[in-house]
Write a structure and sequence with these properties.
Elements: H1 2-7, H2 14-22, H3 32-53
Length: 64
């Protein structure tokens, strides 16, 4: 899992994310999705840590 996190693979569907933001009348800057992807990666890593700290192998909604 750690190797996966280091690659910073895009975890978002860019077109859907842009559509959601533009739907509220906002424009989307070129770097917005990259920064949001960084936040998602951080959230995934924290959920992983919480899951492991609780002795589980299954990430639950409550881990986020």
């Amino acid at each position: 899992m750690e190797n996966f996190m280091a690659q910073k693979e895009m975890l978002l569907i860019g077109s859907k994310t842009k559509e959601a933001l533009k739907g509220s009348g906002l424009n989307v800057a070129g770097d917005a999705l990259d920064e949001l992807n960084e936040k998602v990666h951080a959230m995934v890593k924290e959920a992983q840590k919480r899951c492991e700290a609780n002795g589980r192998k299954t990430v639950r909604g409550s881990d986020f």
